[in-house]
């Protein structure tokens, strides 16, 4: 922990050890920086400089009520929420996505995507095809755990508490979003808002009597820097650790640093108020957390990418389950709770990225662990289905304004050549890296190269 509170004693080696020992997912910051340095050679030659925001739709969204409404199919199969015309001729989306529909020229939707099974888990963000690690951990294993200039963690995971502390803790019943597989804890996603050591260590513990004026604070930090620079035995890693803590990294995690108008623009909480959601469903709190946090989570993801984070996982608590049982609303009612926040948040992020000139630099991916049955069940819900699932892309310098592939008449399976999780992993990795160069780069981890090369990327995007 960074400790600058003793007014009578000069900051010395013991005080600095508190800085250098900053915890990051079970290891010290110096360990993280050492891991970063070991990967620097490969990253300099292979990284494209693009970031990825992976929006995981936890629970399994319906392919029909999202991007493939099948309105010509019989009742009980076609979209329960109707359809809305998009900006692409002849293409429609589910009826709760009007904002995304009007921005379809900035999207690529895959209608021939399949996750292979109908199990609740957290594929494709963590699965066998990602080496049982968060996909962002593969990215961090190549480029290093921290950005070499800003010190920003290169791999982050954002859950509702990152922007709304009153929300529930992340759902971990179906898998560990923070898994780093066999890569080690240095490459695990940093999750702000979880109360971990890194969050606390980014705060300067200086007594209130010394915070009367900004000038006094800056003067104290300058003195601390001079004291540390006089420590002869300090390593380059220790110097870098100190710069990270006193640098601007923490500001990227603080939405109060953002223009309030932008925060309001992203905010999804007013769209679905808690009193508008039926309390009969056990997932009531999940619906509330989703509406309360989703927009601000995507805003925070954009801020982290701007500050040098290369991979950001975003997920709200388990909301996309659609059985219409004691836990979940019917498809029609549930999409009322989930569709408006998703439609607004993703559309706002897309507009923001284009306005900032970041559409070539940041790739948004959105999907879940499976899709939903073609036929609506007797309760008005859709059950688990692995044969077909929705998949959306935006930005990243890829080819937008298209629908890729086709599904069968009832959206139960791909009609055209199927795209599977390995194709998605390869697409993400080929956006973040020049994979051909990665294959021959000295020091590039062989297991990451294999994961990136296990299938061809979705070629229509490139």
Would you write up a description of this structure?
The protein has 462 residues and is an alpha/beta fold. It has one domain (47-193, 248-457): Alkaline Phosphatase, subunit A (3-Layer(aba) Sandwich). Helix content is 34%, strand content 10%. The chain has helices at 13-20, 29-46, 98-102, 135-143, 197-201, 214-229, 236-246, 249-252, 260-266, 284-306, 331-355, 421-432, 435-440, 446-453, and strands at 23-24, 27-28, 51-56, 83-85, 92-94, 108-110, 155-158, 311-314, 362-367, 371-372, 384-385, 391-395, 402-404. The strands form four sheets. Strands 7-8-3-9-12-6-13 form a seven-stranded mixed sheet, sandwiched between helices. A hairpin with a 6-residue loop joins strand 4 and strand 5 (92-94). It is globular, with a radius of gyration of 23 Å. Mean pLDDT is 86; it is low at 1-26 and 197-214.
Please give the radius of gyration in angstroms. Answer: 23 Å
Strand order of the largest sheet: 7-8-3-9-12-6-13
In terms of DSSP E residues, the strand content is 5-15%
User: What's the CATH topology label?
Assistant: Alkaline Phosphatase, subunit A
Biggest sheet details:
7 strands, mixed
Mean pLDDT, as a whole number?
86
Structural class of the secondary elements? alpha/beta
Distance between the amino and carboxyl termini: 45 Å
- Give the low-confidence spans: 1-26, 197-214
Report the CATH C-level class. Alpha Beta
Give the ordered list of helices and strands. Answer: HEEHEEEHEHEHHHHHHEHEEEEEHHH
Taken from the alpha-carbon principal axes, the silhouette is globular
What's the CATH architecture?
A: 3-Layer(aba) Sandwich
Helix content: 25-40%
**What's the number of domains?**
1
| Number of strand elements | 13
């Amino acid at each position: 922990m960074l400790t600058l509170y003793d007014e009578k004693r000069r900051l010395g080696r013991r005080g600095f050890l508190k800085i250098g020992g900053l915890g990051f997912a079970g290891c010290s910051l110096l360990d993280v920086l050492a891991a970063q340095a070991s990967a620097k050679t490969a990253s300099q030659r292979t990284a494209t400089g693009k970031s990825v925001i992976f929006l995981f739709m936890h629970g399994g969204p319906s392919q029909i009520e999202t991007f493939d409404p099948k309105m010509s199919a019989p009742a009980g199969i076609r979209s329960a929420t109707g359809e809305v015309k998009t900006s692409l001729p002849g293409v429609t989306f589910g009826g709760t996505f009007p904002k995304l529909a009007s921005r379809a020229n900035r999207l690529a939707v895959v209608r021939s995507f399949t996750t292979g099974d109908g199990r609740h888990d957290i594929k494709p963000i963590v699965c066998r095809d990602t080496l049982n690690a968060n996909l962002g951990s593969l990215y961090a294993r190549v480029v290093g755990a921290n950005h070499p200039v800003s010190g920003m963690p290169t791999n982050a995971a954002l859950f509702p508490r990152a922007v709304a502390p009153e929300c529930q803790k992340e759902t971990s019943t179906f898998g560990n979003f923070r898994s780093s597989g066999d890569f080690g804890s240095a490459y695990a996603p940093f999750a702000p808002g979880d109360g971990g050591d890194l969050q606390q260590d980014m705060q300067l513990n200086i007594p209130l009597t010394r915070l009367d004026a900004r000038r006094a604070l800056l003067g104290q930090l300058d003195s601390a820097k001079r004291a540390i620079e006089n420590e002869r035995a300090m390593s380059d890693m220790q110097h870098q650790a100190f710069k990270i803590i006193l640098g601007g990294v923490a500001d990227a995690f603080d939405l109060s640093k953002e223009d309030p108008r932008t925060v309001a623009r992203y905010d999804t909480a007013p769209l679905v108020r808690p009193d508008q959601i039926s309390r009969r469903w056990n997932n009531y709190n999940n619906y509330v957390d989703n509406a309360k946090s989703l927009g601000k989570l995507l805003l925070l993801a954009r801020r982290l990418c701007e500050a040098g984070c290369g991979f950001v996982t975003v997920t709200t608590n388990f909301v996309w389950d659609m059985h219409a049982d004691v836990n979940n609303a019917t498809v029609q009612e549930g999409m009322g709770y989930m569709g408006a926040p998703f439609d607004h948040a993703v559309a706002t992020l897309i507009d923001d990225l284009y306005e900032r000139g970041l559409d070539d630099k940041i790739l948004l991916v959105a999907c879940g662990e499976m899709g939903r049955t073609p036929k609506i069940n007797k309760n008005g819900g859709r059950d688990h289905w692995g044969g077909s699932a929705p998949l959306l892309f935006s930005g990243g310098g890829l080819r937008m304004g298209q629908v890729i592939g086709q599904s069968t008449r009832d959206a139960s399976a791909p009609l055209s050549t199927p795209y599977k999780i390995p194709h998605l992993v390869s697409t993400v990795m080929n956006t973040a890296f020049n994979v051909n160069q990665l294959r021959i780069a000295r020091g590039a981890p062989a297991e990451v190269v294999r994961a990136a090369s296990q299938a061809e990327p979705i070629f229509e995007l490139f």
